[in-house]
Amino acid sequence: MTTKGYMKDYPRPQFVRKEWMNLNGEWDFRFDDQNVGEAEKWQEHLAGTHKIKVPFTYETKASGIGVEEFHAQVWYSRRVTIPKEAAGKRVILHFQAVDYLAKVWVNGELAGGHQGAYAAFSLDITPYLTFGADNVITLKAEDSNDCTQPRGKQRWTKNNFECFYVQSTGIWQTVWLEYVAEQRLDSVKITPDLDRAKVSLDYRVQGLETAAGSLRLEAIVTLKDHHVKTVSLAIDRPRLSVEVDLVHEANGPWKRSFWSPNQPNLYDVEFVLYRDEIVVDRVFSYFGMRKISIENGKVLLNNVPIYQRLMLDQGYWPDSHLTPPSEEALIADIDAMLEMGYNGVRKHMKIEDARFLYWCDVKGLLVWSEMAATFEFHDDAVVNFTKEWLEIVHQLYNHPSIITWVPFNESWGIPYILHDPRQQKFTESIYYLTKSIDPHRPVITNDGWEHTISDILTLHDYVETGEGFLKRYAGNKDPIVHKETTCNQWKYALAEGYEYKGQPIMITEFGGIAFESEKGWGYGHQVQTDEEFLERFDGLIQAIKQVDYICGFCYTQLTDVQQEINGLLTEDRKPKFPMEQIRQINLR
């Protein structure tokens, strides 16, 4: 079952309008290794040397180019006909993701740009357009091997190494146009308050300064086609808030309308903006009534403890790398995790396509949203990381499936956090900035080890056997959290100067078992048979469950990724075992 506003392949399912144009497909493309394009005015006419299939990067087979060598500057161009009927509307050009620096021209005029590989951005290109005619959109993307830019699992050397893979340069998510009114809804921040049976709507409205007449915004809330509440608000300033009481007869008992993995109930909400009672904008969205909290060393969902069975997922595909080949491919990955008995996913070192998060919302898969790391600590890295991370938290805030923010992982980009006050303060600042935007979700400041301030104490350990795990963890909570011993033979759970505050404890990377192969690697000894794999997998899962102070886990990982061959599925999504066997072990 989908939400009321759902449209297949619509790139932003949390904020849907009906008038839009998908610009994916064939674009002209050109490398610019000497960085001469702007001086030679390629923005006015790009003599493309290749055709590329957007949104796949040139490094991928799916793009039609498939060149893995790094090129620091690349150009794209395509013609778009803007219909005459759109005159009088504003035309918004959206890029869901461009890696890393983007500059955009329309008909040779600079329309704007953006920095950051994982956040979406939009430009009002109306002043540069000719309606009823062809228009040329040109984009220059600049990338680098600089480790002060958030890059996640993208390599910065010529070849893949360890767990780092082919880089992604340029457009790697959907490009699209939207036709909107001068007066329109810019965004809505939706905050559920489960304990009070209310939801807060924080509006941003565009175009008030040119509005001729009075504006009114209506929000129509429904649940499973039953009307819940309609609220109306006069618009007299660009930022307004309203609180909606959700207690109603059609809902039946209040608990039945909560969002959870077992019952991912979603409220539809239709926003209608009126100017003198004429509809000028209509947006479809949705929200889930759910609460994440922490009490007595447990993570609670809707005030009830939840044991999290997470899967680490890097979101790579063999022919398209970071870009999902289709919406169906995203759904298939979610279905596979649910079928194997997982109730959540840690999306590792990547901000995933908004459609993935939509289907996690719809299907009830919990999400830990993790930022792509920098790999050098420097003033530039602090600025680059902070700016992009805050954009992402704003953009993803409304997804009920996201229950945890993970800005840092395994001291990547903060290599001396154990004892360096600057790096420690950086993680503290990100923690508090995140909380200033979203005080409702846990934040993990350094997933794996060497935590500073963190709402959950998460540990990574690739010990091979259940017996080895129990020897290290059973009865050893105090020595681990008080830094009398390391958490995994080589890293301390907390950084120097930080004390354990009673946080929940989870094992958020373990396993990584691979079959014997010369083509890649896994963690520990490679196994030879299905029986050997399942015995080791089962031993680890049951050992973790036996340790009473551990309240969840995250297994590495969903699929093989390039040279890393430790997935439960192959890189092309073929199960290595019947999924039911994995499910039985997870749920036993």
Automatic annotation (TrEMBL):
Domain Glycoside hydrolase family 2 immunoglobulin-like beta-sandwich: 184-290
Glycosyl hydrolases family 2 sugar binding domain mapped to chain residues: 22-138
UniProt keyword Hydrolase, yes or no: yes
Gene3D superfamilies: Galactose-binding domain-like (2.60.120.260), Glycosidases (3.20.20.80), Immunoglobulins (2.60.40.10)
MF terms (GO), sorted A to Z: hydrolase activity, hydrolyzing O-glycosyl compounds
Family: Belongs to the glycosyl hydrolase 2 family.
Protein known as: Glycoside hydrolase family 2
Domain Glycoside hydrolase family 2 catalytic: 295-584
GO BP field: carbohydrate metabolic process
InterPro entries named in the record: Beta-gal/glucu_dom_sf, Galactose-bd-like_sf, GH, GH2_Domain-Containing, Glyco_hydro_2_cat, Glyco_hydro_2_N, Ig-like_fold, Ig-like_GH2
Keywords in alphabetical order: Glycosidase, Hydrolase
Domain of life where this protein originates: Bacteria
